[in-house]
C-alpha cells in the first residue's frame, strides 16, 4: 500500500499554494511535514486526503489513480490542532463512532474501543463527555478515534500544538509507538524541527509551498540539500558565513582558512556560503584543526543544562549552544571555534555543494 | 518600578474554603525583586494564571495582600496598578499605525509630544520596527503584532511590572527565537520588573533570572535555571524541567549508598534519618547517566534510540522501569552496551517527593 | 476552494432553482413585459417600446417621490445607526439582565408591520390617541393628518421605534465577540471610555455595522405598510414615498405600463445603491479595522 503524488500542484487564482510535488509514502511509514506556518503543510495534507482536488498532477493509491475520488470514499482519518470530538457523545461513543458508521458488530467495537482507550490512557474516562476532559485527554480521544478507524492514511495536522509542553513531550513518544503497529501511512505536520527529530521516520521540509527535500529524518537533518532546508530544519537556526575558495584552500576571512578536502577539492574557485549548527560552535579551543572567529556577545540564555550564546559576527547573528551554565558578559568580545568537519558549504544558488564531513560519517 | 510582595496570599474560587484542596492557590509568601525577570512555570491548572490575575488585578484574593513597593494594591483595579500586560494573543489597535499604537499609553497619560516621539522611536529601534512605524497595525503578521503589544508594555518608563501571559503561543518556532532574545535585550536595557507565565520550560528558563515552578496551586521551587536543573527541590520539578525529565527511581538508602533491587549505587553524600519517610527515591537526570559495556554499571536493556540531531535519547528498561539516557550526537549504540553508570555527584535523594540534603561524606 | 467534485450535487439545487424561477424570475419577466406594452383592457397588448420608461423618468411626480424617499432613508439611517450603537453599548454583557434586555429589544421586531402602523395611527390621534391627546393637553398643536412636518415626524419616530432594536441587536452581537483582553489592555494603556469605543469597539463592529446599514437602507427604501397605514401618503403628497406612489399608479389608476416601468427603475435604483453602499463600506473596512 503506497500513496504517490505525481507532480501535484495547487493554485487558486494567481496564487500558487503548492508547487509541483512528487513523493511516495510507504505503508507503515511515519512522514513528517516540517515547515513554518503557511508553508503549505495543511494544503498538502488536504490534497493527500482528497479534501481538495489538485490543480494538476495525479494522486495514486497502490498505483491506482484516485485523484478525483472523494474523501468519503477513501479510508482516511484526520486529527486536527483543535480538539475535535462530538460534544454530546461520551468518550466511549466518540471513539466508537467511526466503527458504528461502518456497521461493525457491537462486540468488536467494545473490544477495539477498550484497546484504543487503554493505549491512550483513557480507560477510566470512557463515560465522560469531551468537555469535561482536559485538553490532553480531549486530543487523546480524537487520536483514539483515528486509531480505531483502521484507516489506510492517517493525517495529523499539528495535533499537539495546543497542549502543554510536558504533555506534548509524552504524546510525541507515544504516538509513533502506537501507530507503528497499525500499518497505515502516517503524515504528521509540525512547525517544530525538534518534534520532527523526535518522531523520526521520514521528513519532508516545506518552504513557501515547495517541498525542498524528502527523505529519512536524520538524513534530511544532517545532509540538507539546500540552505532553505537547513534553515527550516534547524532550531536554533544554522549559522552562516560567506567564504571564498581559492586553489586548495577555503577562506573564511579573518585569516581563517581550511584545506578544501574531499568533495570541496573539485569545486571551481569562487564565492560560497558556509554553514554550521549552533551545537557545533565551541567556546573552548578543541584539539586538532579549528577555525577561530571573534564575535560580540549579544544575549545569553540559560536553560539549566545548556546555554545559548547569541553573538554578532559582523552583520550576522550567530548562536552557539553549549552544555552547562556559561555566564558571559553582554557586549564582550569572545572567541568561538568551529571544527572544519562540521562545516557545510552551499553555492550562491543555495544548493549544498559539500556536506559536513561528520554528517557523512554519522 | 517596584519590588512585588505577596504576603500570606491564597485564593479559592468557592466561598468558605474548608480543606487545603479547595484552594486554587495555596498560601504563599514571596518577595520578588525590583527589576527582576521572573517566570511562573507549570502545567495547566497549576494556579499560575490565578496568581497572574491576582497580580494584574482581575481577581481579588480570598486572603493575604499584594504590595507593589510599599503600596498595598490588593483591592485596586487593574488600571490603577500601573502595570503593563502582554496577552497570549496579540492585542493591537487595528485602525492605528504602529507608531500610534506605541504612543497610545503615553498620550493617554498626557505625556508631551516630543517625549512621546523620542520614547516611541527608541522602543521601535529596539524592536526592529522603525521601518514599519507608519503602517497600519492590522496588516502585520502575528509576531509583528505581538512585538507591538510588547512595545506598548515597555513604552512607559514608570510601570511597576510588566506581565506576560504565554506571549509566544501563536508565534512560529523560528520567530520565537527572535522575540525571546529581543525581550531579553529589552529587559536589560530598560530594567522593568517582568513576570512571565508559561507552560513551556524553554521559554521560562531562557527568559528568567528566577523561575517559580508551580504545581497543584503551590510554589514547589523558586530558583535559578541552574538550581532547577541540578537540584530540583521536588520530584515534580525534576520531571517537569528538562526533556526528557529526571529519572526518578524508588531506592533504599544506607549512608552513602543507594540500593535498587539489591544493586548498589554509590552516592557522593551521606544520608540519614530516612526511615520515617513513606517513599524514598533517587533522581538522576538523563544527562548524567552513561551507557556502557563496562561491568561496573547496573544492568539495562536498550529499547529504543531516538536520534534528535545534536544528541541521542536512549530509552532503556531498568528493572521493569523506563529510564532515559542521553548520549552525544556521534555516539554509536550497540547491544553490548547493557550497563548504565550514574554520576554519583548528580544523584539527588527524595523523601516523600521532597529533596533531602545529605552531609558531605 | 472546491470541497467535492461530485456533480450529482447539482440535482440537490434543482428544487431551489425551480422555486426561485417561479417566485422571482417569472413575475419579474411579467413586469418587464408590461413595461414595454400598452393595453386598453380585454387582454389586448400593443408594443410601446421604451415610452413608459421615458414618461416615468421625466415625470415630476417620480422625482418628488424619489427625493422624499432619499430624505426618509437618510434620516432613518442617521438616527437608527448611532442610536442602535448607543443602545447596544448599554446592554449588560452577561447575566440575567442581559437576556432580559435582549428579549425586550426583540419585541418590536415581532409585531407585524401593519399592526405597527395601526398602533401609531391610533397613538398619534388627537381625539383618542395617548400621544396626540397628551400633546393637545400640553397645548402643542400636533396633527399628523394636516401638518406635513408632523406627519413626517410621526413616521420617522415610528420607524425608529420599530427598527432600532435590529441595529442594537446586531451591534451587541459584534460587541460580544471582542475578547476581554482588549478591554483589559485598553485600561492598562490608560484609555478612557471614548477611546475604547473609538479604537476597539467601533473597528471590531465594522462588519456587523455594514450588515445593519445595508438592511436598514434597503428596508427603509422599500417601506410601504407602516406610513401608508398611518398617513396614507398625506397630507397631500407630503409622505408619499416611492412604494406608496407605485401602488397608487398600479392599483389606484391601473396604469400597468407606467407602473411596471416604475417598478423596474425602482428595482435598479435599490440594486445600484446597495452595491455602492457595500463597496464603499467593505473598502473602508480594508483600510481601517475589522
Task: Explain what this protein looks like in three dimensions.
Chain A is an alpha+beta fold. Chain A folds into 2 domains: 2-232, P-loop containing nucleotide triphosphate hydrolases (Rossmann fold, 3-Layer(aba) Sandwich), CATH 3.40.50.300; 239-361, OB fold (Dihydrolipoamide Acetyltransferase, E2P), CATH 2.40.50. Helix content of chain A is 24%, strand content 36%. Chain A has helices at residues 41-49, 91-101, 106-119, 135-148, 165-180, 193-199, 217-222, 227-232, 357-361; strands spanning 2-12, 15-26, 30-34, 56-61, 64-65, 76-79, 153-157, 185-190, 202-207, 210-216, 239-246, 249-253, 256-259, 270-276, 281-282, 291-302, 306-313, 316-323, 333-338, 344-346, 352-354. Chain A has a 6-stranded mixed beta sheet with strand order 6-7-8-3-9-10, with helices on both faces. A 6-stranded antiparallel beta sheet of chain A has the order 13-12-11-14-20-21, with no helix packed on it. In chain A, a hairpin with a 2-residue loop joins strand 1 and strand 2. In chain A, helix 2 packs across helix 3 and helix 2 packs parallel to helix 4 (135-148). Chain B is α+β, with helices and mostly antiparallel strands. Chain B folds into 2 domains: 4-240, Rossmann fold, CATH 3.40.50; 248-360, OB fold (Dihydrolipoamide Acetyltransferase, E2P) (Beta Barrel). Chain B has helices at residues 48-56, 98-108, 113-127, 142-154, 173-190, 201-207, 225-230, 235-240, and strands at 4-11, 25-32, 37-41, 63-68, 71-72, 83-86, 161-165, 194-198, 210-215, 218-223, 247-250, 252-260, 263-271, 280-284, 289-292, 298-299, 301-307, 311-318, 321-328, 339-342, 348-351, 354-356, 359-360. In chain B, the strands form 6 sheets. A 6-stranded mixed beta sheet of chain B has the order 6-7-8-3-9-10, sandwiched between helices. In chain B, strands 2-1-4-5 form a 4-stranded antiparallel beta sheet, with helices on one face. Chain B starts with a strand and ends with a strand. Chain C is globular. Chain C has helices spanning 9-35, 51-58, 60-90, 96-110, 113-123, 130-137, 148-176, 180-188, 193-221, 225-231, 242-252, 256-287; strands spanning 37-39, 45-47. Chain C has a two-stranded antiparallel ribbon. Chain C has 290 residues and is mostly helical. The model of chain C has no long low-confidence stretch (mean pLDDT 81). Chain A binds chain C through residues 12, 51-53, 68, 70, and chain C through 1-6.
